[in-house]
Design a protein that fits this description.
mainly alpha, about 140 residues
């Protein structure tokens, strides 16, 4: 049991006794804590080591690396987009060339077509006359 100083004892002795009692109780608590930590089964102890904090230099290096990677990715995206735009431009140019070629080719007018038909009919009629067949048109 705790012993309290008798009444009228000097104040210094009272303080020393209280400090001594605090020290003893602190030692007991530390000893009990050590004993309880030694008895923790290994499966309950943490499996991983605590994560090491990064230094400022490491944080800056990571940020610079991420920035470089992002810039490289954006440059690749821009390059691919530029190539696609170039292909699309080339396709449109080819289509326009074909349209211009089609439009620039002279179309037969109705009169020219009729002349060709008439000439073919005359050739047929002449060939029939030579063969001695009756001609009716």
């Amino acid at each position: 049991m705790e012993q309290f100083p008798q009444e009228g004892a000097e104040g210094v002795n009272v303080i020393h006794n209280l400090i001594h009692q605090l020290n003893l109780s602190a030692r007991r608590a530390v000893e009990q804590g050590q004993q309880s930590s030694e008895t923790i089964p290994p499966q309950l102890q943490p499996l991983t080591k605590p994560k090491k904090k990064k230094t400022i230099a490491e944080v800056k290096a990571d940020a610079a690396r991420k920035t470089r990677e992002k810039r490289a990715l954006n440059a690749e995206i821009a390059r691919l987009k530029k190539e696609e735009d170039q292909r699309n431009r080339q396709k449109r140019l080819e289509e326009r060339r074909r349209e211009v070629e089609e439009l620039s080719q002279p179309e037969e007018t109705e009169e020219e077509r009729q002349e060709v038909i008439d000439n073919q009919e005359e050739i047929i009629i002449e060939s029939r006359e030579e063969a001695g067949e009756p001609t009716t048109t």
